Amino acid sequence: MTVSRRALLSSLPVLTIVGVLPGCAGFSIYQTSSDISMIAKGVKAILPLIQAVTGVGSKVYNKIVAVVAEIESLATSNTTAVGTTVWSNVGSSLKTIVGLLVGLAVPSWVNTVLNAAVALVTSYLPSLAASAGIGMTPDQARSVLLAAVK
Known about the structure:
Layout: H1 5-11, H2 29-45, H3 47-51, H4 58-77, H5 84-101, H6 108-123, H7 126-132, H8 138-149
Helix pairs in contact: 1-5, 2-4, 2-6, 2-8, 4-5, 5-6, 6-7, 6-8
């Protein structure tokens, strides 16, 4: 299932809300770090496709690269807690990337990978998963992100 960038972007503000994340209680620090790392690697793998998009200048591309680096940093620094801050930051980072791409004709694989990243974030936020409307399970999202890296 593919979701438009506009629908994806409209679902991300709810990911940046700071509050209690009841869905995080069942996830280990290892799983959280692994998933954040997978998101960073998956998005990093589509950077060449993003760079080739007409309308993505060096300033926009460099901003996206910096945001991906922020996500990578979150994966390696998430050693003490699973919760609100880390997933709010990942959601905010994805929102930034999607926002920079809105209105551009990006390849469908870019949309698919970004959808998978958002789906994985919402798997940690079950109360928000329905509003994101991605329709991808965490395992499906992990499979897409893993495929992006290969």
